[in-house]
Amino acid sequence: MEIETAQVMTIRLKKEPLWKRMWKERWLYILMLPGVAFFAIYKYVPMWGVLMAFQRYQPHLGVMGSEWVGLRHFERFFSEPQFWTLLRNTLYIAILDTGVFFPLTIILALMLNELRSEIYKRTVQTLVYVPHFLSWVVVVGISYILLTTEGGIINELLALIGMEKVQFLMSEFWFRPLIILQMIWKDAGWGTIIFLAALAGVNPSLYEAARIDGANRWRLLWHITLPSIRSVVVILLILRLGNFIDLGFEQIFLMLNAMNREVGEVFDTYVYQVGMQQGQFSYSAAVGLFKAVVGLILVVSANWLAKRLGEEGIY
């Protein structure tokens, strides 16, 4: 009877004109307006600038008046010898980010969830959240204070115990590990928030039933906790793949120098170099569009694969 009533209501709603339905839910639409306005102004309107990637853009002519050159900038980008170096460096750091940083946020969330003392748990959470609010300038500055060969704390300790000082900041070998360690220290705690929220929604009766059956904490983790947050993990991983080669500009730019540029130059810093420093606006727009297309392909592919494996996906 309830199902039939719901079906009748659905049919009636469909028969009503759209404007009537919108008027009935007008306060919800009004509540939604700020979010829609934000995305329209800052996400969709700027997409008009994508046209620059297919033009020889001249600021005094504007987007509509600049000469159309088609795919010439993309042909140049893919034929540049530097392209393969940029791709290798970007993929290397992106794989470390996805393979090390992302799982670590899950592990940290699981560890925090296992703490029984609320006071201790809140204290630890606060300590791991705080670095997120520091800018990359501060984080890199701390790294310099710790690692520089001239008065750096770590190198001074190495010298104190009779070891040679290590040029961490100038070394190609240490560049990528330092990037990942900085990411972990700054954002791993902040990344646990959504996972902790998902863990809070796990039904406690499942744990109680498992304990009655003799399950230990590892069994509870493996058979209840992880399956309960699996859908959240999949969705966040898919969304993260959208920014797979978008590593961010500020951190890597601040860590770059003449000695580690060969392994540190990525697409983000390259766009700044050719776009802002050299004024090649159309060419840098083409590089940025290439990054966006790769991210879109990864998201669509990962979502399709997730659905094939029985997960919900993001759409």
Automatic annotation (TrEMBL):
One cellular component term from this protein's GO annotations in UniProt: plasma membrane
GO biological process: transmembrane transport
InterPro entries, alphabetized: MetI-like, MetI-like_sf
Main location: membrane
Keywords: Membrane, Transmembrane, Transmembrane helix, Transport
Source species: Paenibacillus oryzae
CDD domains listed in its UniProt record: TM_PBP2
Identification of the protein by name: Protein lplB
Signal peptide positions on this chain: none
Spans through the membrane: 27-45, 91-112, 133-154, 174-199, 220-239, 281-306
ABC transmembrane type-1 domain ranges (all copies): 87-302
Membrane topology annotation: Multi-pass membrane protein
PANTHER family: POLYGALACTURONAN_RHAMNOGALACTURONAN TRANSPORT SYSTEM PERMEASE PROTEIN YTEP, PROTEIN LPLB
Family: Belongs to the binding-protein-dependent transport system permease family.
Location in or out of the cell: Cell membrane; Membrane
Pfam families tied to this protein: BPD_transp_1
